[in-house]
Amino acid sequence: MPINKNALIRYQVLDRCFRNTGRKYYVEDLIEEINKVLQDIDPSKSVSKRQVLDDINFMESSEGFSADIERIQDGRRKFYRYSNPEFSINNIPIKQEEIEKIKAAIDVLARFEGMPQFDWVYEVVPLLQHKFGGLQSNGNPVVSFDFNRDLKGLEHFGVLFNAIINQQVLRIGYKRYFAEEPKYFHYHPYHLKEYNNRWFVLGFNQEEDNPYWNLALDRIISIEVTSLKYIQSETDWEEFFYDIVGVTRYADAEPVEIKLLFSKTRAPYVITKPLHPSQKHRFVGDKLEVRIKVIPNKELFALLLNFCPDIEVLEPEDVRAQFQNTLKESLCLAERNLGISG
Q: What predicted TM-score, i.e. pTM, was given to this entire model?
């Protein structure tokens, strides 16, 4: 059973009391000791007698700490202590179930090895593996991530990460694909996001007066930390990304409902891996009708192109027309690359 923060605080206070052989702790004393600590953290918090008794029972249980707690009669009252004063909940061996959870967490943590700003992972992971022993069972990982350590632009990740945490304004040199010269501007970074195996940063472009300017890390050619005053963002980034696919959100654009039709062969894939959290679907004959509510952007059309020829955009008409134009451009490019003439 997961232990929340307040429960862990109570168990630690009880542990300290039960190990103290120089004093008798009656239930009222235990309540008082716990409340002292809780109210230092939050004056509105307190604990009841029933909660303390439940905590003691949990500490004695195998689901808890298997503690041997004595209830010693002292007149009409009882005081509590460990039968072995050397016992502590902080000294008990870690359970196999907890080892497996730690192992899974280490596997996730190790994903950041090789990324700037996370070099400490090289030291922490082996220490954890040694501390908890056996965390590299069979020598083969059981979890893998799609991550390219050689991805261009990762060298900027650490600087951007620190700038967001420390609220620093940057002067960035940025060169778009096919641009002849880079552009330089002052940038207030807010959020790092990975999409389609590329990293992006979103922030305020001071020269463009745009608070949602996204930059691909692989197009950044230089970063310089400045002493300019940082302008904070009030954006809820989880909400910001909910209405789009990818990272591009056009100013003042609103989500629209898009109706799509997929072939029978593609239906299982779209059902098991939805295009967007807003997705709703139903079968119409042997085809799958899908509805999503998003702001159309270039990432959405790129995603839909991946389903050709098993997809048709039905509604709205402007999205259907834009998808058809994108499809025609892709076909023309493919024909030119193959040397096919009309």
A: 0.62
Fold of 154-242: SH3 type barrels. (2.30.30)
What's the order of all strands across the beta sheet hosting 77-82?
25-26, 77-82, 69-74
Count of beta carbons in the 10 Å neighbourhood of residue 105 = 11
Are 261 and 312 in contact by the 8 Å Cβ rule? The answer is: yes
Report CA-CA distances (Å) from 81 to 18, 23, 25, 67, 85. 4, 9, 8, 10, 8
* 179: its two tokens: 């641009």
| Residue whose token pair is 């552009």 | 183
Q: What is the CA radius of gyration of the chain?
A: 29
Domain extent listing, the chain: 5-82, 96-139, 154-242, 256-338
Architecture of domain 256-338: 2-Layer Sandwich (3.30)
CATH number 1.10.10 given to 5-82:
yes
Distance CA(247)–CA(203), nearest Å, equals: 12
Partners of 198 in beta bridges? 195
**Peptide bond connecting 309 to the previous residue in cis, omega within 30 degrees of 0:** yes
- Tens of pLDDT, residues 88-146: 998 876 666 766 777 677 666 666 655 555 655 555 556 665 555 554 545 555 566 66
For 256, list phi and psi in degrees, rounded to 5.
-125, 155
- 3-state class of 17 per DSSP? helix
